[in-house]
Amino acid sequence: MPSIKDFKIIIKPIITEKSSLGAEFNQITFQVNKTSNKKEIKTAIENIFKVKVKKVNTSIVKGKLKAFRGSLGKRSDYKKAFVTLEEGQTIDLNAGV
Predict the structure, then answer these.
(1) Within a domain: 91
(2) Among residues 16, 6, 15, 30, which one has the least CA distance to residue 84?
(3) Strand, helix or coil at 57?
């Protein structure tokens, strides 16, 4: 049974052309809480989606500088988690659409 804490760790899946290339290697990309570690991410994914996780790789993505109406601003930094699933395990991210 997933807890409230699990849903605070996993923010959203990242669905881009580059992240979809990881599907060949049974890999899914998520945006996660910046303070979470690999063990917390692994248990959250296993509790929410009921799958077995092989490994988790993380990276901090630095926010870009962007101009909006002549004033300069900065997007927030965020943490990405590349979750590799065990063989035969899948997560259907399009199920709720």
Answers:
(1) no
(2) 30
(3) strand
Domain membership of residue 78 (yes or no) is yes
User: Of 69, 80, 89, nearest to 23 (Cα)?
Assistant: 89
Please check whether residue 8 is in contact with residue 39, taking contact to mean a CB–CB distance below 8 angstroms: no
**What's the structural domain count of the chain?**
1
**Residues 6/44, Cβ–Cβ less than 8 Å:** yes
List the beta bridge partners of residue 60: 79
pLDDT tens sequence for the chain (97 residues): 888 988 999 999 999 999 989 888 999 999 999 999 999 999 999 999 999 999 999 999 999 999 988 899 999 999 999 999 999 888 887 765 5
Q: Which residues contact 22 (CB under 8 A, 6 or more apart)?
A: 28, 29, 82
Query: In this structure, what CATH number is given to the domain that contains residue 46?
Result: 3.30.70.330
